[in-house]
Amino acid sequence: MALNFNRVLDCVKKNPTTMSINTLKSIVIDNDRSLHNTYRQYFDMFLEYSLGEIYASVEEALMAYDTQSPDIVFIEESLNGECGIECIQRFRHKDANVKIIMLSGRNDFDLVKKAFKNNANGYLSKPISERKLYNALDSIKNEGATMSNDIISLFIATFQRKSRDIFSERENQVIDLLCQGATYKSIAEKLFVTASAVNFHVQNIYLKLDVNSKSEALMKLQQLDYAYKAA
User: Fold this and answer.
1) What is the DSSP secondary-structure string of 179-226?
2) Fewer CB within a 10 Å sphere, N or C end of the chain?
3) Which residues of the chain have pLDDT under 70?
4) Which of 48, 13, 39, 46 has its CA nearest to residue 141?
5) Contact assessment for residue 174 and residue 191, using Cβ atoms and an 8 Å cutoff
6) What is the Cα Rg of the chain in Å?
7) Is this structure's pTM higher than 0.85?
């Protein structure tokens, strides 16, 4: 008899003890209270990721940190009266191993670089969709780092310091579209290929830029004192 996956999911939701799932717990710090319910709705869709509390300020989150004991902290980059990036170390003092992901409506490369030099594990540009959030959580879980597609395009544009001749014609097409802010899906549509093919080309581009993954790309950002100019 075929296994009905939807029925299994319903069973797990109704009876959590039926199946053992190691969930990663997150907290969110965002002073835009209109987004709080959206975060809750998104996390309600995930089985392996849970949401503790949502806070409007870093101070509130730090006061409740020991009670929450999160695995992942999402911090808005621009908070009322304080910079989320500059607050990263306050959480690191609480827990050196916690994963910290910045949320921002700005994808300025200097901000991205500053976040990673302050030991952020990821940077997501707003608006945050359910899919973007889930992909980020998966990337943090599996690679220890995450970047949204527009941040990847900034990285590739900035560190494309080698000659374009080392890239294939298709890879150069992908680079050009990424640098224009295109998503994997829109690139696939424009090049008449699948999204998985686009991801394959991006991985090859990473290799030629001397990084093998998002996590290595973020390590390079953390170590840099200056940004290479695009070729």
Assistant:
1) HTT--HHHHHHHHTS-HHHHHHHHHHHHHHTT--SHHHHHHHHHH-SS
2) N
3) 1-21, 159-163, 181, 218, 221-231
4) 48
5) yes
6) 19
7) no
Joined together, the tokens standing for residue 201 give: 């080309």
Q: What is the pLDDT of residue 230?
A: 37
> Hey, is 152 helix, strand or coil?
helix
pLDDT in tens, 11-40: 444 454 444 457 899 999 999 999 999 999
Residue type, 6: N
CA dihedral 103, 109, 114, 117 (to 10 degrees): 100
The residue type of 11 is C
| DSSP secondary structure of 7-25 | HHHHHHHH-GGGS---PEE
Please report the domains of the chain, with CATH numbers, ordered by start residue.
Answer: 22-146 (3.40.50.2300), 152-223 (1.10.10.10)
